[in-house]
What does this fold into?
Amino acid sequence: MIDYDDFNISSDKRILHHFTGLRDPLDHEANLNTLFLILESEVVIASESDLRNNGWGTTSYSIHLNDDKSLVDESLIRPKISCFTDIQPDLIDAHTKTYGYFGLSFPRHSLIKHGARPVIYIPTRQDDYFGVSGRAMLNDLDSIVRSYHPHTQEDGSHPRTMGRVVDDEKKAFKALASAFESHFLCYLKPFNSELSDNDDQYFLKEQEWRRLGNFKFKRNRDVMQIFVADGYAECVIKRYPQFHDRIVSLKAHQDNNDMGK
It folds into this structure.
């Protein structure tokens, strides 16, 4: 076991991390159980109900065109994604405030091989509604999606296979819309650029990577290290003794408002 005070998380930039506590970062028991579920199933799950495709899940997303949905708050398009971080060492405390103290690290090359890549961060400001960037750009993209989406619904034709040149205008338009959504919109991440680096809503610091669908891995081959809350290392070692030298213990802060300072 390694105490975090003696560990430099950035010592190897070839690894990415997945933390399990987004729903409740301080529910250590639930987040430990999620960690065990991931280790046992060898799947980082994007959707609990989707283990099709031999465990990889489906690389799908949904578009929501209600008037109150937008790209600014990430509600217009909802992809099924597994998320990872390339977090910097001096920001790990702030990260645990939002995502909990339990997680795993995987080889970056393995994630890249299976389609993971960095999100596209869009900086916003309170005064950017009338420009050409930030919220103004995202609102314009909203309008574009609302314009074309009714014309790209399924019509019973066979879906285009990757790399195939289509032979008519309608199929080409649908292929363009699909690529725009799955390769671009699903990876957009707006963030308020006016916030302090220490603010837990300053998303740029997370250095997020995404993969559409689940991420399957081999436990003994791909798990580079395991993060646990202080006091839980022995629980993990008892079940997975092969990881005894790859466990990093993270100390919970009593005053969460001081995290990351």
The first strand starts at residue 2 and ends at 3.
